[in-house]
Amino acid sequence: MLSRVGPGVIAVLAAAVVCYAPRAPAGSTPHAQIAPWGLDLTARDPGVRPGDDFYRYADGHWDDTHHIPPDRARWGSFEELEELSEQRVRTIIEGLPAQAPAGSIDQKIGDYYRAYLDTEAIERAGLTPARAGMDAIAAAQTPADIAALMGRPDLGLEAPLRVFMTTDQKNPDRYIVAITQSGLGMPERDYYLKDDAVYAGLRDKYRAHIARMLALAGDNDAAAAAQSILDLETSIARVHWPAARRRDRDLTYNLRTRAELDQLTPGLPWGAWLSAGGLDEQKEFVVRELDAVQSLGALLTSVPVQRWRAYLRYHYLATTADVLPKAFDDEAFDFYGRALHGQEQQLDRWKRAVRAIDRDLGEAVGELYVQRYFPPSSREKMLKLVENLRATYAERIAGLEWMTPATRKVALEKLAAFHPKIGYPDQWRDYSDLSVIKGDAFGNATRAAVFDWQRRVKRMGSPTDRGEWGMTPQTINAYYNPTFNEVVFPAAILQPPFFDPNADEAVNYGGIGGVIGHEMGHGFDDQGAKSDAHGVLHTWWQPEDTQAFKGRVDRLAAQYDGYAVLPGLNVNGRLTLGENIGDLGGLSVAYEAYHRALDGKAAPVRDGLTGDQRYFLAWAQVWRGLTRDEQLRSQVTSNPHSPNHWRVNGVVRNVDAWYQAFDVKPGDKLYLPPGERVHIW
Predict the structure, then answer these.
(1) Which CATH superfamily is domain 41-91+376-423+470-676 in?
(2) Is 111 exposed, middle or buried (0-12, 13-18, 19+ CB in 10 A)?
(3) By C-alpha distance, which of 472, 490, 469 is closest to 481?
(4) For position 1, what pLDDT does the model report?
């Protein structure tokens, strides 16, 4: 995935951010949206040598003259486009008829949006909409009752184990139920287990937040319950696998029958859990973190029920806080927004409404978005770019000196089978069975969660839907799906600074070309490479190739381990390895694809910059951004993407062409001797 932060990403392009060319008069040559030809020349800091800090050289003036808005944890190219996308979606929604026919998609989108914005109605309702869920939690008396609550899709409860439906990695034509570790209210196990003052302080804030949330709901001994919940989550954290280990697709694929699942977690009432979610007829399961799931199962049966009731009560309130009265919403933001991520203020309610609709009715809005904002010509040009990147990857794989012919043959077959999805799905999701009721924000969110869960349950036993998308068209992101061997680029990312049909070719290849190469590169990173052309997870590499590949990626991981982010906190080279391989392969291959596109012609010099210089500056332009320290800490401990600075500097210093483009010499801070540069694909 391209995103620097977790699933999903992330913004109106402010006039102060980039210089926009006016719309060209009819009959004249169109201009790039970012004047003069797609690159923001004002962003650079000419006082920095490219070889000392290429990120600062490319983006330093932008960093120095911009700030993070108070409602954001970060701000940069992604967030600017997210802001634009949200404004566009708002325009679409608010332009829908207020009295649309009942059951129509316009009615569902409009009523969902207006109900979410109606905070006066939410305030009047108080805790009444949540009362049935809270009463169900309070009535639990046995481990089976607790398990049934954890399995209910209408409650959406945090639990030590998460049960979900997914594609079977060893049989991509079928869906299967997977079980994975979960249950933490803070981002990752380090927040519970590390002794550093910053983590201890956050634990104190988390405990106080839990107590305040429970007190708002009327609990008499909220402080004691908060301590119990923190202690319980600390026990959960102790058996969790670290984030880097969870990336290993071989370790996290453990097929078990129902009987074997019962043997793994004796006493855990799986019957009650699975029945609550409509999954009681499933015969096989993939257990991800095998020993962690075993330990968490034991925890579920050994911890007294009353402690689980308090735990579930808190998480139910925290999960639904945005559609509960303001006191709950503000309290949830105070910890999850301000304490954990450094946000100074909550997002405007309309922006949160847009995000909620993206989650619950995303493709319905996406269809309208595409009609208005995504020209067919962009899809056509993207397909050409993809094919040029594919051809360039093929040349590079064919010429790899470290790969044996047997492995090379399968790698080329996999590359040829890559399926690109551009802009939007060919078949839009059907929301006919989703009921949206005017003025019922809490109920709409609950019904949407149940609708999506039941949609997934109904298709169990049917062939997988290879046309399904994992992101909406209005999302600023892209991804590679190894089980379908596909690269996916939503419509909203196909605009400046990533892509502009009127921009210089060097800028488009350094921007969206690098993104395409990055996503293709995931098919050949340390985990994506474990699937073949059909998406099947198995060993298809020759042993000597595996060792040669490991030697290269180990060196890359070691490089990133050395990059400091905050005092005492470095990038985790193993956690970020797949994304770093994607960046390195993407930038390297897109560079060669750019030269293929020149078709033997010399690239023009523009504003004193060669084509190669413009190419690398375009990559840096995509990754410019500011991030709050709290968000950086969360990202580095739990997210597989490196911080922006190192998605530029950490990559270019391994690309030979960058040295030539900017005359980088020994003595420059980013200089690596040729023998120390990592070349993989």
Answers:
(1) Collagenase (Catalytic Domain) (3.40.390.10)
(2) buried
(3) 469
(4) 61
